[in-house]
Amino acid sequence: MSFRRTAAAVEEAKQSLASAAPGGRSAGVPLAEALAGFERCLREASASMASWRRPELEASWNACRQGLDEADRRAERFRLGEAPGGYEELYGELGDLIDPLDAFASAVERFRELGA
After folding, report:
1. What values do phi and psi take at 29, rounded to 5?
2. pLDDT band at 81; cut points 50, 70, 90
3. Side-chain half-sphere of 53: how many Cα atoms within 13 Å?
């Protein structure tokens, strides 16, 4: 199954977005660059969704599909809105963008239950 490919694209999306967060002495990558990478990886994940759709995974698949769609909607709203005012606001916004992708953690558990 190609769930691994989808999950890898989701993880890459999260990493891309997280790279905008300042850490230590690093200012982080430019927010526009991080957001573009996030959206690109979401498209890659979306494109691979059909490859792992199975009746026994339908609930997990639907939750992941909805998570990708919601993350994409939030990213678009974020891109078209005002930039966060400070670090705390930025961290909150980045977390809000990533939250819908939590469905993939549940899907991993479902795969384990099925022994896949």
Report:
1. -75, 160
2. confident
3. 11
- Say yes or no to pLDDT of 1 above 70: no
Q: Against a cut of 0.85, is the pTM above it?
A: yes
The set of residues, in sequence order, having a beta carbon less than 8 Å from that of 15 and lying 6+ positions away, is none
d(CA 11, CA 99): 12
Q: Does domain 3-114 have CATH number 1.20.120?
A: yes
User: Which residue in the block uniquely carries the two structure tokens 């989701």?
Assistant: 10
Token look-up 């974020």 returns 78
pLDDT category, 103, cuts 50, 70, 90? very high
Domain ranges of the chain: 3-114
CA distance 16 to 23: 14
- Do residues 2 and 48 touch, judged by C-beta distance below 8 A? yes
Q: Across residues 11-36, what is the average pLDDT?
A: 87
Measured distance CA(72)–CA(67) in Å, rounded = 8
The CA distance from 35 to 46, in Å, is: 16
